[in-house]
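Protein 1 of 2
SEQ + STRUCT:
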Amino acid sequence: MRVNEEHVSRLHRESLVVDTHCDTIMHLLPTQERGPKTRKLNERSETGHIDLPRLIEGGVDCQCFAIYTARQENQHDALLKSLQMIEAFDRELQKTPDIVLVHNYEEILDANKRGKVGALLSLEGAEPLMSDPKLLRIFYKLGVRMVSLTWNWRTSFADGISAKRSQSKLTELGVEAIEEMDKLGIVYDVSHLSDSCFWDVADVKKTPFIASHSNCRALCDHPRNLTDDMIKAIADHEGVIGVNFAPNFISVEKADVKRLVDHIEHIVKVAGVDYVGLGSDFDGISSTPAGLEDVSKIPNITRELVDRGYCEEDIRKILGENHLRVFRKMFR
């Protein structure tokens, strides 16, 4: 049966669409590899995946922008790099009034009512904290509302997937950092965490946590993906898994929008429709699935969900309401 395009367009337009991970801020700064040429948030680019024109075209209402500094283990200048990224992002926001920094659930809704895209800041890897959980308070004041304690490396807080041989738990600092996040109202993100540390988080944490950009290991056996038991644990904590668009996380064969939605469907079958959302990893992945070449193609997910017979209520949950539920509970 042919999908009704007017129905898809209306449903996507009326939904609050949330993406919990992109690496666009990296591309706002000059680098040794790229030279002085940088992208602009307010200009449509022929490269990369995200800018304001394409966010609007894709109907994204709240985009989480990651601060990623862990280019190598024990990155000595991580704090400096993180502040430079925040400054560059703030500079771009000043020139792009239709994207506004949001700090809580109410501000996300207000931005949507005013026809603006809400921008949330996250720390991908806690290297900028320089082993001091108290610095979370400063990053909170700068707008950070989501934090992962690791990228792939070991930090003073926890182990990433590249350090999984140790089979360790969170360190004392890691537990202290998670407790501080709960006090401040920062969402904890387990994407990139080693399996053993994941299970320690599930044991220690009493409030919701998310996997901002991870898929299902049962469908694609990649260490960055989650086992079914992990998916259930996140659901037991009332958290959400944001499915990642990285092709090698989706399928060992050719990745496309249908195979990505297979991961959404698997999470629904394992845990329920209330625990899955979107976490593209746009601008952090070197290639994209067919049908999801950049953020403007997000409506293709809605189309595929409609084609599979999902009701409007469940599609709205997947597109953003599930993440918003966590934000409403956790943000102060």
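Protein 2 of 2
SEQ + STRUCT:
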Amino acid sequence: MRRTKSLNKISRLDAEVIAEEKSLAEMWEKVAEEIDPVLAARWLRRELVRVMNYGKRTFEDLKIDEKHMIELLSMVEKKEITENVAKKILEKLMEEPFSPKDYVKKSGIKAMSGASELEAFCRQAIDENPEAVEDYKKGNEKSLHYIIGQVMKKTRGQAAPSIVHEMLKKLLK
């Protein structure tokens, strides 16, 4: 499936950085055929390059290919895993290539999608942090971020922070 409609939505900076490295440009072209090109550009330009720089690797050292990136980003795109989980998987992929889908299935780190399950974690975090709840109700927005962090800790990062944020705001009204 070719996704050429979104190609012009990529930021100029992402396009310039991707175009500078032939291997990166070739990978982006293949990934962008299956994944939203903007998402592909953001992940390849920022996350892949970040992990490579951290590990002092070059494109010639890469053991992963576009299939790994498509599989990983497909799960991000479908919200099957959070971006934080995907970043950790990408770091592991640098060490040794593997199927991200199989890894997620074996590890049980799929994004939490059950609203009732997530709501239970939110209610628990609210009950356990009455001071932060009170501060939030007095207008301290940072207190809400603290409670979000508590929910994220309880879910081991499997909940999408944006969904937790919305759910907490609704519960705290």
